[in-house]
From TrEMBL:
The keyword Lyase applies. Its cofactor is pyridoxal 5'-phosphate. The keyword NAD does not apply. Keywords: Lyase, Pyridoxal phosphate. This is Aminodeoxychorismate lyase. Belongs to the class-IV pyridoxal-phosphate-dependent aminotransferase family. Pfam families: Aminotran_4. PROSITE patterns: AA_TRANSFER_CLASS_4. Transmembrane segments: none annotated. One of its GO terms (molecular function) is lyase activity. InterPro entries: Aminotrans_IV, Aminotrans_IV_CS, Aminotransferase-like, BCAT-like_C, BCAT-like_N, Class-IV_PLP-Dep_Aminotrnsfr.
Length: 287
């Protein structure tokens, strides 16, 4: 089973679910109302963070982004103490070394339409085991474009239908990820990843003005490794020596082929970037 970032969700053991302060022994008992605005119109935001043997990674940064996404959606700021309580609860008796935590925060009870929700926001925290992703993958270019000027640009909202379609498109082409261009024709992002291209010793990633989500792993790599932010055409990207993806669940992942094009580079720069990220993240669980 694959999660929203296209990563194998691991063994089919049931996830542990916490909803608004209550932990459920059986996830089938966890319920949200049929009128929850996150369910009805996708009026919600979420975060997905990795769990290592040492614990959940970069919680503070994920909560910062959750707050930014909530504000962009017009939702009240989530209670950070409550989110941390939920994370602690779902991981208290974990039986896996590597996994993920999913935090979902919705508008709560609302109308059967796009008018504003009128209920108290709902907070759901879930945890499950996750199989470590492969070190490399293939990607394909989406036939659809990201709108870098849209209301949800840069927002990690639960309105994820476009990414569901994108990931299905990748799987239909025997790839692990789909990359979107924006309306200007430049490389934007994957369904759940940021894109990096290597030209010699220079590493380039699209700027946030191109429309990608400000990924947590992207931000950390920009702090820990020399990276240039600038627009990239698809033709430029396909001419790179190496390409790699980053995400909270993939870390740094080499791209072997893009639209069937095999890159000639041996992945030396990608390997260095992955090593730096692994070392720095292992040394600080909440950088």
């Amino acid at each position: 089973m694959l999660d929203e970032e296209g990563v194998d969700a691991g063994p089919s053991s049931d996830p542990v679910i916490w909803v608004d302060g209550q932990l459920y022994a059986d996830p089938k008992d966890a319920r949200v109302p049929a009128t929850d605005h996150g369910l009805v119109v996708g009026d919600g935001v979420f975060e997905a963070l990795k769990v290592t043997p040492a614990g959940p990674f970069a919680v503070r940064r994920h909560l910062d982004r959750l707050e930014r996404s909530a504000a962009a959606m017009g939702l009240p700021a989530p209670d950070r103490a409550a989110v941390r309580e939920g994370i602690d609860a779902v991981l208290a008796d974990r039986r896996f070394a590597n996994g993920k935590v999913r935090i979902t925060y919705t508008g709560g009870d609302g109308p059967l339409g796009s008018q504003a929700a009128y209920g108290r926001p709902m907070l759901v925290v879930a945890a499950a085991a996750m199989t470590l992703p492969p070190v490399s993958t293939d990607v394909v270019t989406a036939p659809w474009r990201r709108n870098e000027h849209g209301a949800l640009t840069g927002v990690k909202s639960t309105s994820y239908g476009e990414n569901v379609r994108g990931l299905a498109y990748a799987h239909a082409h025997d790839c692990g990820e789909t990359v979107f261009r924006n309306t200007a024709g430049n490389v934007c992002e994957g369904t759940g990843t940021n894109v990096f291209c290597v030209f010699g010793d220079e590493v380039v990633t699209p700027p946030l003005s191109a429309g990608p989500l400000a990924g947590i792993t992207r931000d950390l790599l920009l702090e820990w490794f020399p990276v240039t932010e600038r627009d990239l055409t698809l033709e430029e990207a396909l001419g790179a020596d190496e390409v790699f993806l980053t995400s909270s669940l993939r870390d740094v992942q080499l791209v072997e082929r893009w639209d069937g094009h095999a890159f000639t580079g041996l992945g030396a720069v990608t390997t260095r970037a992955a090593a730096v990220f692994a070392e720095r993240s292992a040394g600080d669980l909440d950088p």
